[in-house]
Design a protein that fits this description.
Blueprint: E1 5-11, H1 24-37, E2 41-48, H2 58-68, E3 74-77, H3 80-83, H4 87-98, E4 104-107, E5 110-112, H5 119-148, E6 161-163, E7 176-178, H6 183-194, H7 200-210, H8 222-228, E8 237-241, E9 247-251, H9 260-270, E10 290-292, E11 299-308, E12 315-317, E13 338-347, E14 359-360, H10 361-375, H11 379-391, H12 403-425, H13 431-473, H14 476-481, H15 485-495, E15 496-502, E16 505-510, H16 512-528, H17 536-539, H18 552-555
Parallel strand pairs: 1-2, 1-3, 3-4, 10-15
Antiparallel strand pairs: 4-5, 6-7, 8-9, 11-12, 11-13, 13-14, 15-16
Helix pairs in contact: 6-7, 11-13, 12-13, 13-16
Length: 556
């Protein structure tokens, strides 16, 4: 009698490593025991660690190919769902069995032959396929509900966060918590980015020094930092698809690193390019701070290092060549060649044609020194102003405060949002338009709340702001000369904004408070020259910058 040959097929889903009940090894042991009890000849064992929810499994296709070729007659497996969980693979199994290509399928507890009624087999395969569909639906529903609760459902979280291992669904514990090691590092990187003194490449180097590494204990790539600084998750928001598969913005409950306003500011700093560039070698003081006054493109910087050949006097760049391009004399063989080392700034021309020419860094330095000399205050005035501010107890003039306007605008936006909700309830607008408009209003409300909080804080902390402005103005000119490039960038960003370059001239909007301080110093010095005034606190109690009747003066 002809002895049928069987292939033992054992499969386990790779996605189920921590939850699968029966491992491949266990399946093989039990099926070998079954084969021995039924006198089944096993000619090959095929193992596979891949989900059967989609067609295209390599080793499953190899199994069918061997049966088609006559290498084996039957299949030995744990259950039918080990062979298939999708309609295409299930159809192949059923067709091959009905046409006597597969002569026998043996499982734990059941077996199937061509002469049998295939209805039960079709039911089992259909149940396996339906299980996958139901599982996919349940998983999508679960992640959607998690997003609606305010927790980002992704298994991989942005750098600085991790899933709470102690979370239980029936408790009120947080599902996403800060990672103790990486959270403070990433938060510091965001703060450095907002100073405008650091490029993304600079921040990567800073992160490497601080010890920010991935799961393999390796530093992150530069591209990872570009992606990280584009994630709104750090400001408390994320997108997840709703039941209609439309990406919907959700406000997260996780601890934020930055405010939404800071996130928007960061995107403007980055230019929203999202494209990684090479790590830069030179620290240019004004790179990233200026824009072109003609086309509004970014201003980039170039380091020029040229040598004048000691033999033929030809000038060439040693960044690209180590020998004279005219006579071929090597740089090392030249006798004390003259060198030209300069830093230039020019328009990137990314927004179209631009006629602006480059400017040398020393010219920018001259402008900055001139500006700083105009806002620098003398030591005696600084000490007097500090003492004066500490003695003052002045409230903000409500008539000049912008707080009422902000509160009124918030009230109007809330009415608009309620109107949209009512229109949606009456089915007067469709869901897509409602989401677009309501999310826009919600974003405006969040930004308004932050402005209102800032305005209310200034009413309390105006002294702190005034002291900070005085500290900047104190010896600003002398200190700036000896600062590092990064410190210079920070100072520039603190004293003003909108540094533009046009016709080799710079335009800079200086903080009004610093200019007021300088004007008050002039008044103070004119009245104190030659004698010490009495009751100077009372005499100068109307100093505009020191008693901020308008809180926006100090914030400008």
């Amino acid at each position: 009698m002809y002895a049928q040959k069987y292939i033992l097929y054992a499969r386990k889903s790779s996605e189920d490593k921590n939850r699968q009940v029966t491992s491949i090894e266990d399946q093989i042991v039990e099926l070998k025991r079954l084969a021995k009890s039924k006198n089944i000849k096993i000619v090959k064992i095929i193992e596979e660690s891949k989900s059967a929810k989609n067609p295209g499994r390599k080793f499953f296709n190899d199994l069918l190919s061997k049966i088609h070729s006559g290498y084996a007659d039957g299949i030995l497996c744990w259950k039918l769902d080990r062979l298939s969980r999708n309609a295409l693979d299930g159809g192949q199994i059923s067709w091959m069995l009905q046409n006597n290509i597969i002569k026998h399928i043996v499982t734990i507890g059941s077996d199937y032959k061509p002469s049998d009624n295939v209805l039960m087999m079709a039911v089992e395969l259909g149940m396996a396929t339906q299980y996958v569909k139901d599982l996919k639906t349940n998983v999508k529903r679960g992640t959607r509900q998690k997003a609606e609760r305010g927790w980002y459902p992704s298994p991989i979280l942005p750098i600085g966060y991790k899933h709470n291992p102690l979370y239980q669904s029936n408790e009120s514990t947080e599902e996403i918590i800060p990672d103790i090691k990486s959270f403070p590092i990433v938060k510091k990187l965001w703060k450095l980015l907002l100073t405008k003194a650091y490029t993304v490449a600079d921040l990567k180097r800073e992160a490497d020094v601080l010890g920010l590494v991935n799961g393999k204990n390796q530093p992150y790539s530069l591209n990872t930092f570009y992606l990280m600084f584009n994630k709104e998750f750090y400001a408390g928001y994320f997108y997840w698809k709703d039941k209609d598969d439309i990406p919907t913005r959700h406000q997260g409950k996780h601890k934020t690193m930055i405010s939404l306003n800071e996130y928007i500011k960061a995107q403007k700093i980055l230019g929203n390019t999202g494209v990684a560039t090479r790590v830069r070698t030179y620290d240019f003081v004004y790179r990233g701070l200026m824009s072109c006054g003609e086309c509004n493109s970014h201003i980039t910087a170039e380091h020029i290092h040229q040598v004048i050949c000691s033999d033929c006097k030809y000038k060439f760049s040693i960044k690209t060549s180590q020998k004279c391009r005219r006579c071929g004399l090597l740089l090392k063989d030249m006798e004390a060649p003259s060198q030209i080392i300069k830093d230039y700034y020019r328009c990137t021309r990314k927004k179209g044609r631009c006629k602006q020419k480059s400017i040398e860094e020393k010219n920018i330095e001259e402008y900055m020194n001139s500006l700083l000399s105009k806002i620098t205050i003398k030591e005696n005035f600084y000490q007097w102003a500090i003492e004066t501010i500490k003695r003052m107890d002045v409230e903000i003039n409500n008539e000049q405060s912008i707080l009422p306007k902000l509160l009124h605008k918030k009230c109007l936006l809330e009415k608009q949002l309620n109107g949209l909700i009512n229109m949606r309830a009456l089915n007067e607008i469709d869901g897509a338009i409602f989401k677009e408009k309501s999310e826009g209003i919600k974003t405006e409300l969040v930004l308004l709340d932050q402005k209102i909080s800032s305005e209310q804080l200034e009413k309390v902390d105006w002294k702190k702001v005034a002291l900070k402005r005085l500290k900047i103005a104190r010896h600003a000119f002398e200190k700036f000369k000896n600062m590092s490039p990064k410190d210079k960038k920070i100072i520039i960003s603190e004293i003003g904004s909108n540094l533009t370059l046009k016709d080799k001239k710079l335009d800079f909007i200086t903080l009004k408070s610093l200019l007021y301080i300088k004007s008050i110093e002039s008044e103070y010095l004119s009245k104190t020259r030659g004698f010490q005034p009495k009751n100077n606190v009372e005499k100068y109690s109307d100093l505009g910058v020191l008693i901020p009747l308008n809180p926006s003066l100090l914030a400008s």
